[in-house]
């Protein structure tokens, strides 16, 4: 397979990344989370990308994310759309022959991105709901009426939301979301 | 088999999506359980709320695992194994239970968060089951014995979703490449499980809020494939998958001007009909795609 | 074992594959009694199941079968097939072994292998030899060339109809047979139990066992094989149509943390072989190989893959197949992978998918090693005692050879098997020759050339193999009419012992015959049998001829009995006419010097010297440098262990210098070598001043290799921060490296080129990782990058080593062959531009140290040495062995052997294994004390020879040389040049005969007269 023949190798021929732009600490940052420890084991076989249901919509394919992370292209990885449209189907993790646990590595990367960048608005809203109501969506009389019709017990309005708030404060995730009233 | 649930008594975990969108899944599951003489203790009444959803894991690992542990601890207090109806809840609770049982360091870390939040600590004394795994444990022959009706000529495309099966090291439900549990459960009702290409591919649910177009693309692939395989209906075991197969079907139909006529049933709805439960008892009125035609396939045994 | 304790001069070899066969033959030739135990009905192992072998494309069974037959016929080997080792007690030197002989229900002494029983048996059973793709009967021989050719009844399927009993001519079927325990005493044991395939059914994502058109590589070998279940037609299981588009899936279960962590080593190359053979069957076929790293590591392998791609049009797809799906209508299968060359996910639809499953130790190995208390690793492979002692296990006296020790290809297996033999012989040296039978001597009657030929002929029925097609009685009657034929008879089974008695007494003796002809099957298996019969009857064995009327007649003309009968008559007539002109010939014996010369004092040479000296042979170890140790003494550690090179070298040097049978000569070079096998005269020059002449019986070449210095490539030579791996290693050893920010290593510099040095140097990836790990250990913060095309890890333990490197944060960057890294060097600064095909970025790396991984190349004096030894150099000036697969340590020239990196780049383990093997090969030669020459050598008629020397250059065995002869004519002496053939080296191939422009050479036993008479008899 000659490079010249197909020519589908690089998108931007001019773009050349200098080693000073690499952050070799990035991979250790990822591996600091128990989820990210597998990142080192990758031997670039491409199984993950072939198994992914949404790889066609990714700007960076799964195996590319790993290699770019290992090289230290921190900004590119954290800025990518890919990480937030992973459906967490776990196909890559199941089929990976080296136990990279790619889905988990992406979780670790998203954890970093949440602090370093912005998490998607939709995600932020859901987290705020959990902080306020202990659930991702409100369960009100409206839903409980349907439950009554079906002979089901009503759902309490606020399930131990205090406990949840304490956890949120303890892990400091509150710094990432606007604290609700 | 855990001693705790030897006499078919479980802590039922509902999560958020079922009460807010699909209470029919809850109703159908409980009604089937009644007939099978399985007792459910509602964890919602004991303070359980959100499981610790997957997008929380994306934002902060410690928060996710601590929230999930908090729910596991409730079941430990009740001294009951958990049965989850939603794949998302099952995935989280099962995986966290597995992780905390096997990783001492992690368990210590989480228990620190819990205790400093004035919450009881995780001990690792209970198991977590998906609804269908609980039925497997109950015994398919035992379920059959309670049936009074049977389906005839009904073709069903069964859908596992992702988090009921994966990550398999934690889930331990079935072979992820060639599962058969849900097919077996469907076949005892007399319906036939068809083979369809997209069966094991993600429904797109988790990214619906983030990239609707992409999620719908995945949903459409499922519907097209199930329809092409000649299915009369789909059988679902997760409310989020149900959103994609049910609500999204209507949306796709209206956006593209096509018709699927492919009702999406929760498994206990399908099972419930053979156990003699009534259509409205099983909450079929809440299925967005009309499932009335299913009744036509039902015959007494 | 105590000093001076009596040891038993017999050896047990467990496993009858190519490893077991090679060990057995070496040991038997070396004067030891060998018991070869094999649990299947036939020896041959996996190699017998293969279609062709890489990279030569030889038919596997064709090159193996002669060794199988030799094993069967060897007077010192007792074949115990369909048997298992039940119990072992005792210790090195004296083991008591109980062997369970499973009942075949067929008497091995009388069975002729005619196959009539099998033809009549009504029960069809899946044939394990054909991977259950074809059928055999309940009474069966596993394959046509089975050794021994004795049928076996599989009682699991036999319905006791007893039809076979009735059909058997010699009445060999015996339902009363029972299990037997055979108790033997041996001095040592060699384990050669080989491999099985990992159960691909467990890899549910590939659908093996569910989709009919997904098969394993071994199943494909049987499909490709002309004697296999599809007669060599490449068809697919679902509809038996030709497979026009085929995909290979590499690493099925190998290199997988959840299944087998190791690399099975041979799969990349055998998949290439499959693809090439498929293209040879059908040039229109599409072949797609899907791989992760292409491990074409051995001699000729990289060129093999280049040929596959460029000449045959095989497509290589870099990308691991993640799963396989099926089109339910057509049963086509679709391979899903990410293709790194096109950078797209690919859904590759093929007719047939072939999995390369992991290769695991064979099923009986676990039980056997538990019984013998041999340590095995987590994968079931036997653990070798040391890096340089890979034949030895934790138990003295028990050795291992072949796949049982770890994945390897056939040449490495054969070399290791010979190595095991050398180790055994060292332990049992004192008992050599004690348990073997002396070959019998025969009284042969004198036959004068002027005597009237009195020819006897026996024409064989071979059951119905011949008689079913050829009208044998008619041929017999015809034969009687031929001139000089005194008697002609027929016989149902000419090879039976009863027939031998007929030949001896009723024919040769009674009719006072002086020539004998048998018309039957193939001389390959039975000629030596009849020659022995002739000897026993007092007839010179070279007065015997063998006409093949089975393979050459009845088997190939099965539907034309009339014509076949006529052809049989023609063949008999031809051989009878040759027989008239046969002359008695005698084998000769030449004495030899029982001393060994090892050229090269590195780890390889020292190992060879020790293994030869330990057997009691005086050994000269000659080294041109002023100290022993070779390349290894410059190394720091030896991968994949943490052992220091100096420890290994130090130990060996002490052993060599302290050994009473080894004479070490440093600063010594070879000035001249004259003579031939067993009788070499070697002139040595020691330190430029001294000269020494020695007489040697065998020579082992262990001259090693040197590291290629890429002068003017990639800035090397002008920039002090650009160095080779060897230089890095030396700096690490001497602690000359300070903390660095960025270290880059580039693999394949000056190797695996498209033209020029096209080979893979096998060890550079390992060396790079080794040095990277040392760097990482010392400098935790340094960024280490290894830029590579493929990572080649071709031995046990290396895949795990690669994973260790990744876990230690060594970053691997894969570039494409067509877009290699570009080095910019200015004074002492280095910048490397590389395109990472995974991250899809071009990186421009500032580099504090750039390490170039270059290949090993042949020594400068290889050309000189080659001429002195009269042995060939092959590609890239590495020495060329006699046969790449089955004779990796021999040269075509007798008496000279090769081992180590002088043969081809390899690791320390492989080099020392080869060294032990070469020692075995050399000492076998010397152990008997004489060289036996064959009877049918070629001879030069000096009166006709014009001294042109054409024959000298033609002879593949360097058996001919020109000599000066002085002819006296009255009082004038004229010097003439004549060719002279050395009968010690001549193999009787006859190539010199047609080369000679004046017809001065005649080949004995194939004289011009004899051949002409055959031709005349054929035509007229």
Q: What is the residue-averaged pLDDT of chain B?
A: 94
Q: Which regions of chain C contain 5 or more consecutive residues with pLDDT less than 50?
A: none
Number of strands of chain C: 52
Which percent range fits the helix content of chain C? 25-40%
What class would the helix/strand composition of chain B place it in? alpha/beta
What class would the helix/strand composition of chain C place it in?
alpha/beta
Looking across the biggest beta sheet of chain C, what order are the strands in? 3-2-1-11-22
Outline of the structure:
Chain B is α/β, with parallel strands linked by helices and 301 residues long. Chain B has helices spanning 17-21, 23-35, 54-59, 61-78, 87-102, 104-116, 131-138, 140-145, 168-171, 181-187, 212-228, 239-256, 267-274, and strands at 9-13, 39-42, 82-84, 128-130, 149-151, 155-159, 192-193, 233-236, 264-266, 298-300.
Task: Describe this protein with a few key phrases.
heterotrimer, A: 181 residues, mainly alpha, 11 helices, 49% helix, 2% strand, elongated, disordered N terminus, C: 1020 residues, alpha/beta, 5-stranded parallel sheet, 25 helices, 26% helix
Would you write up a description of this structure?
The complex is a heterotrimer of chains A (181), B (301) and C (1020). Chain A is mainly alpha-helical and 181 residues long. Helices cover 49% and strands 2% of the residues of chain A. Chain A is built from 11 helices and 1 strand. Chain A has helices at residues 3-6, 26-32, 47-51, 62-71, 74-79, 82-85, 91-95, 102-116, 121-133, 141-149, 161-170; one strand at 16-18. In chain B, the strands form 3 sheets. Chain B has a 4-stranded parallel β-sheet, with helices on both faces. In chain B, strands 7-6-8-9 form a 4-stranded parallel β-sheet, sandwiched between helices. In chain B, strands 5-10 form a two-stranded antiparallel sheet. Residues 1-5 of chain B have low confidence and may be disordered. In chain C, α7 (267-281) runs parallel beside α8, α16 (603-613) runs parallel beside α17 (645-657) and α16 (603-613) runs parallel beside α22. Chain C is globular and about 95 Å long. In chain C, 53% of the residues are buried. Classes of the chains: A mainly alpha (181), B alpha/beta (301), C alpha/beta (1020). Chains A and C meet through α1, β1, α3 and α4 of A and β16, β18, β19, α20 and β41 of C. β1 of chain A pairs parallel with β44 of chain C, so a sheet runs across the interface.
């Amino acid at each position: 397979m000659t490079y010249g023949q197909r020519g589908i190798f690089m998108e931007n021929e001019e773009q050349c990344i200098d080693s000073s732009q690499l952050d070799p600490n990035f991979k250790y940052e990822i591996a600091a989370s128990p989820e990210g420890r597998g990142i080192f084991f990758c031997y670039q076989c491409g199984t993950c990308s072939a198994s992914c249901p949404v790889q066609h919509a990714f700007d960076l394919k799964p195996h590319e994310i790993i290699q770019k992370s290992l090289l230290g292209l921190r900004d590119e990885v954290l800025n990518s759309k890919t990480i937030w449209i992973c459906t967490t189907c776990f196909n890559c993790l199941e089929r990976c022959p080296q136990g990279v646990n790619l889905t988990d590595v992406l979780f670790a990367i998203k954890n970093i991105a949440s602090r370093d960048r912005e998490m998607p608005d939709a995600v932020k809203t859901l987290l705020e709901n959990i902080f306020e109501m202990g659930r991702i969506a409100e369960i009100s009389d409206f839903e409980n009426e349907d439950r009554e019709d079906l002979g089901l017990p009503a759902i309490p309005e606020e399930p131990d939301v205090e406990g949840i708030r304490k956890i949120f404060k303890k892990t400091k995730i509150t710094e990432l979301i606007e604290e609700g009233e | 088999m855990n001693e705790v649930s030897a006499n078919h008594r479980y802590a039922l975990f509902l999560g958020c999506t079922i009460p807010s969108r699909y209470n029919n899944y809850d109703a159908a599951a409980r009604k089937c359980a009644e007939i099978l003489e399985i007792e459910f203790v509602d964890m919602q009444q004991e303070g359980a709320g959100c499981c610790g959803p997957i997008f929380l894991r994306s934002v902060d690992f410690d928060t996710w695992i601590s929230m999930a542990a908090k729910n596991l601890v409730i079941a430990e207090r009740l001294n009951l194994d958990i049965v989850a109806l939603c794949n998302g809840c099952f995935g989280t609770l099962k995986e966290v239970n597995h992780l905390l049982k096997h990783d001492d360091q992690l368990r210590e870390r989480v228990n620190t968060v819990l205790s400093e939040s004035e919450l009881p600590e995780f001990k690792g004394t209970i198991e977590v089951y998906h609804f269908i795994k609980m039925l497997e444990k109950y015994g398919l022959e035992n379920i059959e014995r309670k049936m009074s009706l049977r389906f005839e000529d009904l073709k069903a495309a069964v859908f596992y979703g992702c988090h009921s099966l994966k990550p398999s090291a934690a889930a331990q439900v079935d072979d992820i490449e060639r599962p058969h549990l849900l097919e077996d459960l469907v076949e005892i009702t007399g319906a036939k499980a068809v083979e369809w290409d997209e069966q094991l591919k993600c429904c797109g649910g988790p990214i619906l809020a983030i990239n609707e177009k992409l999620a719908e693309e995945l949903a459409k692939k499922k519907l097209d494939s199930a329809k092409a395989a000649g299915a009369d209906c789909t059988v679902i075991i997760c409310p989020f998958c149900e959103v994609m197969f049910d609500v999204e079907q209507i949306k796709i139909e209206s956006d593209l001007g096509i018709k699927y006529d492919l009702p999406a049933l929760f498994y206990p709805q399908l099972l419930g009909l053979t156990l003699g439960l009534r259509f409205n008892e099983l909450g079929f009125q809440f299925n967005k795609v009309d499932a009335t035609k299913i009744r036509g396939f039902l015959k007494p045994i | 074992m105590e000093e001076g304790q009596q040891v038993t001069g017999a050896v047990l070899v467990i496993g009858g594959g190519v490893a077991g066969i090679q060990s057995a033959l070496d040991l038997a030739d070396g004067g030891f009694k060998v018991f070869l135990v094999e649990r299947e009905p036939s020896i041959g192992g996996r190699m017998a199941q293969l279609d062709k072998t890489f990279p030569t494309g030889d038919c596997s069974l064709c090159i193996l079968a002669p060794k199988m037959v030799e094993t069967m016929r060897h007077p010192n080997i007792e074949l115990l097939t369909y048997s298992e080792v039940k119990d072992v007690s005792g210790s090195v030197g004296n083991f008591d072994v109980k062997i369970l002989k499973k009942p075949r229900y067929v008497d091995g002494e009388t069975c002729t292998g005619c196959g009539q029983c099998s033809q009549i048996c009504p029960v069809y059973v899946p044939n394990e030899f054909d991977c259950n793709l074809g059928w055999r009967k309940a009474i069966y021989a596993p394959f046509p060339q089975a050794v021994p050719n004795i049928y076996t009844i599989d009682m699991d399927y036999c319905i006791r109809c007893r039809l076979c009993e009735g059909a058997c001519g010699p009445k060999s079927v015996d339902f009363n047979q029972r299990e037997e325990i055979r108790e033997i005493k041996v001095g040592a044991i060699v384990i050669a139990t080989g491999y099985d395939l990992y159960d691909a059914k467990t890899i549910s994502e590939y659908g093996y066992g569910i989709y009919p058109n997904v098969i394993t590589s071994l199943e494909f070998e049987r499909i490709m094989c002309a004697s296999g279940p599809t007669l060599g037609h490449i068809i697919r299981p679902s509809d038996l149509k030709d497979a026009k588009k085929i995909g290979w899936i590499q690493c099925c279960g190998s290199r997988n943390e959840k299944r087998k962590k190791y690399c099975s080593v041979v799969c990349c190359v055998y998949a290439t072989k499959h693809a090439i053979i498929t293209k040879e069957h059908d040039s229109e076929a599409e072949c797609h190989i899907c791989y992760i790293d292409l491990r074409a590591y051995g001699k000729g392998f990289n060129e093999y893959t280049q040929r596959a791609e460029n000449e045959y049009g095989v497509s290589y797809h870099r990308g691991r197949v993640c799963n396989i799906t099926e089109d339910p209508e057509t049963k086509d299968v679709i391979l899903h992978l990410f293709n790194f060359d096109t950078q797209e996910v690919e859904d590759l639809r093929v007719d047939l998918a072939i999995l390369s499953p992991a290769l695991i130790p064979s099923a009986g190995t676990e039980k056997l090693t538990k019984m013998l208390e041999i340590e095995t690793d987590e994968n079931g492979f036997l653990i070798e005692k040391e890096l340089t002692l890979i034949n030895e296990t934790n138990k003295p006296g028990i050795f291992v050879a072949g796949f049982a020790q770890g994945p390897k290809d056939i040449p490495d297996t054969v070399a290791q098997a010979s190595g095991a033999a050398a180790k055994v012989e060292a332990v049992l040296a004192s008992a050599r020759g004690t348990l073997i039978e002396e070959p019998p001597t025969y009284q042969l009657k004198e036959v004068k050339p002027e005597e009237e030929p009195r020819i006897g002929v026996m024409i064989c029925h071979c059951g119905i193999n011949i008689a079913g097609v050829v009208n044998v009685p008619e041929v017999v009657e015809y034969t009687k009419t031929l001139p000089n034929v005194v008697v002609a008879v027929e016989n149902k089974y000419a090879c039976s012992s009863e027939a031998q008695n007929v030949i001896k007494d009723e024919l040769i003796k009674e009719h006072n015959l002086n020539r004998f002809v048998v018309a039957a099957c193939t001389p390959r298996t039975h000629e030596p049998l009849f020659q022995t019969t002739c000897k026993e009857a007092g007839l010179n064995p070279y007065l015997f001829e063998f006409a093949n009327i089975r393979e050459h007649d009845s088997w190939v003309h099965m539907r034309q009995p009339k014509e076949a009968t006529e052809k049989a008559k023609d063949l008999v007539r031809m051989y009878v006419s040759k027989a008239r002109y046969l002359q008695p010939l005698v084998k000769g014996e030449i004495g030899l010097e029982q001393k060994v010369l090892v050229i090269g004092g590195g780890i390889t040479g020292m190992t060879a010297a020790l293994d030869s000296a330990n057997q009691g042979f005086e050994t000269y170890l000659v080294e041109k440098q002023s100290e022993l140790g070779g390349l290894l003494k410059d190394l720091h550690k030896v991968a994949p262990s943490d052992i220091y090179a100096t420890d290994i070298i130090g130990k060996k040097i002490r052993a060599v210098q302290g050994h009473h049978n080894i004479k070490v000569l440093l600063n010594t070079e070879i000035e001249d070598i004259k003579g031939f096998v067993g009788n070499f005269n070697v002139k040595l020059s020691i330190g430029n001043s001294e000269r020494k002449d020695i007489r040697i019986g065998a020579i082992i070449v262990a001259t090693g290799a040197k590291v290629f210095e890429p002068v003017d490539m990639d800035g090397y030579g002008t920039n002090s921060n650009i160095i080779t791996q060897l230089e890095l290693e030396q700096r690490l050893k001497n602690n000359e490296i300070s903390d660095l920010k960025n270290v880059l290593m580039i693999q394949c510099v000056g190797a695996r080129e498209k033209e020029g040095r096209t080979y893979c140097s096998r060890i550079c990836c390992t060396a790079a990782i080794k040095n990277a790990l040392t760097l990482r250990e010392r400098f935790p913060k340094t960024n280490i990058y290894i830029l590579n095309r493929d990572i080649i890890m071709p031995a046990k333990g290396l895949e795990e080593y690669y994973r260790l490197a990744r876990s230690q944060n060594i970053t691997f960057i894969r570039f494409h062959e067509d877009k290699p890294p570009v080095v910019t060097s200015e004074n002492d600064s280095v910048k490397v531009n590389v395109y990472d095909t995974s991250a899809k970025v071009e990186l421009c790396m500032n580099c504090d140290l750039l390490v170039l991984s270059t290949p090993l190349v042949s020594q400068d004096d290889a050309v000189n040495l080659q001429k002195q030894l009269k042995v060939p150099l092959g590609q890239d000036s590495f020495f060329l062995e006699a046969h790449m697969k089955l004779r990796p340590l021999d040269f075509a020239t007798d008496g000279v052997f090769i081992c180590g990196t002088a043969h081809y780049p390899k690791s320390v383990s492989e080099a020392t294994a080869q060294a032990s093997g070469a020692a075995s090969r050399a000492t076998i030669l010397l152990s008997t004390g004489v060289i036996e020459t064959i009877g049918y050598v070629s001879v030069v008629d000096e009166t006709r020879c014009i001294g042109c020397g054409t024959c000298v250059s033609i002879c593949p065995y360097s058996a001919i040389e020109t000599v000066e002869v002085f002819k006296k004519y009255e009082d004038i002496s004229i010097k003439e040049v004549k060719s002279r053939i050395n009968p010690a080296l001549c193999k009787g191939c006859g190539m010199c005969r047609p080369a000679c422009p004046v017809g001065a050479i005649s080949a004995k036993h194939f004289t011009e007269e004899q051949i002409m008479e055959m031709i005349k008899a054929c035509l007229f």
